[in-house]
Amino acid sequence: MESTFPVDAIINSTKELFKGSSSAPFSLHEPWFEDTQAWANVKDCLDTGWVSSGGKWVNDFEKKICEYTGAKFAIAVTNGTVALRLALHLVGVRDNDEVIIPPLSFVATANAIKHLGAHPHFVDIESNSLGMCPELLSHWLDNVAEKTSKGVFNKSTQRRISAVLPVHVFGHPARIERLNAICSEWGLPVVEDAAEALGSFVGKTHCGRFGKVGIFSFNGNKIITAGGGGALITDDPDLALRAKHLSTTAKIPHPWNFFHDEIAWNDRMPNLNAALVVAQLADINKRISLKQSLHAIYTKAFAHINEIRVLQPSSRVHWNHWLITMYIDLDDDVEVIQVRDQLLKSLHDQKFMSRPVWQPLHTLPMFTDCPKSCLEICSHYALRLINLPSSPQLVQQIS
Ligand SMILES: *Cc1c(COP(=O)(O)O)cnc(C)c1O
Fold first, then answer.
1. 81 lines ligand 1 (CB under 6 A)
2. What is the pTM of this model?
3. pLDDT digit string (tens) for 133-144?
4. Which long-range CB contacts under 8 A does 339-346 form with residues at least 24 apart?
5. Which of 99, 70, 57 is CA-nearest to residue 208?
6. 199 CA from centroid of ligand 1 (Å)
7. Ligand 1 center to residue 2 CA distance, Å?
8. Whose CA is nearest to atom 5 of ligand 1?
């Protein structure tokens, strides 16, 4: 059966938006250093020789992340995956434990759990925030988990459930207050994967500050990039000290002695990378407001097409607009796959690098045997979401 889905109308609307621009291809999210001190900061690293771990930009980076997010402590590390692994270790995740995560995330969320020898345990998302569903989490724990003096255990695998790791998908805050409340009833620590959510708030509280620890990524595609980088934030002074210690090979600070008091990691962010982040953090609000305009432009451009809609933020949050997402409103799974692939091909043909959402984690070969709730909401959305090019500088290309 031929689909009547209006691929051509969508392509025409996109073409119309960018008709005056010569800067194709339009990537999903590109680094942007225009009007920043990035060049001067990097030059300072080269001129002074402070290019590696340690240096004034790392200290400045940690201070500015605290100022911007309101967290008491920030620890700079080499990337978001490392930040997740370190955060999970610090809240007590150990070999053969289970960590509850949503199935709709970047693969790093599940990988970091496996890096510690633990196992992802999937609980479905909700349609509004695309984050882990609090009501389902509560219901699911009531059914599968048991609280004992030694912790929370999965009754069917007999493994300990040692943390819950919600994700703020595309920068949209999950319903984190509710998730937090449920986890605290169970005595489960919350680590927030806020890799995509720098600049996103619930009320006045920055994402990553609700749980015991939150993490950010400064990968090349994130709202601000270090080239590669990550950070942990927390209000817990002991946890912050431990994070710094374990990320610097557990070396006891001393002017010349090499004494390390446990096996640890080399996770520290180099000064060069921190210099780049400091430069971009200075204008993060400008970036977010440009992305907000881009979101409004897409929303308007596609408004006349009933079969798709551009996802809107919930009114209770301040969204950083990291990735702008289109939802294909079709019931039939077979038809939607056909239409989506056709649409992606046509968009790519005109150098418009839109992407489907990640393949759900529980369907990847490494995670198919992991424990899971019914994951039908994730399965539904995974087929119907397309991310649109969302770089702030793209606004300047629109005619
Ligand atoms: C980018 C990302 C990560 C990993 O960060 P890296 O810096 O690439 O290691 C983790 N989780 C989510 C949700 C991400 O988007």
1. yes
2. 0.97
3. 999 999 999 999
4. 339/3, 339/5, 339/7, 340/383, 340/384, 340/386, 342/5, 342/7, 343/5, 343/7, 343/10, 343/11, 343/386, 344/386, 346/7, 346/10, 346/11
5. 70
6. 15
7. 38
8. 80
From ligand 1's centre to the CA of 300, what distance in Å?
Answer: 30
Which atom number of ligand 1 is nearest to the Cα of residue 169? 13
- Cis status, amide bond into 25, omega within 30 of 0: yes
Q: Cα(390)–Cα(223) distance, rounded to whole angstroms?
A: 9
Q: Which of 51, 83, 60, 390 is nearest to 222 (CA)?
A: 390
Is the CB of residue 193 below 6 angstroms from any atom belonging to ligand 1? Answer: yes
Instruction: Please name every residue paired with 385 in a beta bridge, in sequence order, or none if there are none.
Output: 327
Give yes or no for residue 79 CB within 6 A of ligand 1.
yes
Cα of 193 vs centre of ligand 1, distance in Å, is 8
Q: Is 190 helix (H, G, I), strand (E, B) or coil?
A: strand
Distance between CA atoms of residues 266 and 246, nearest Å? 8
Neighbouring C-beta atoms of residue 29, cutoff 10 Å? 24
Query: 151-197, pLDDT tens digit by residue?
Result: 999 999 999 999 999 999 999 999 999 999 999 999 999 999 999 99
Residue 15 belongs to what H/E stretch? helix 7-17
Pocket test for ligand 1, best of 191, 193, 359 (most atoms within 8 A of CB): 193
Strand partners, 232: 75, 215
Task: Read off the tokens for 185.
Answer: 């009833």
**Residue nearest to ligand 1 atom 10, measured at CA:** 108
Q: In the structure encoding, which two tokens stand for residue 198, read together?
A: 């720098």
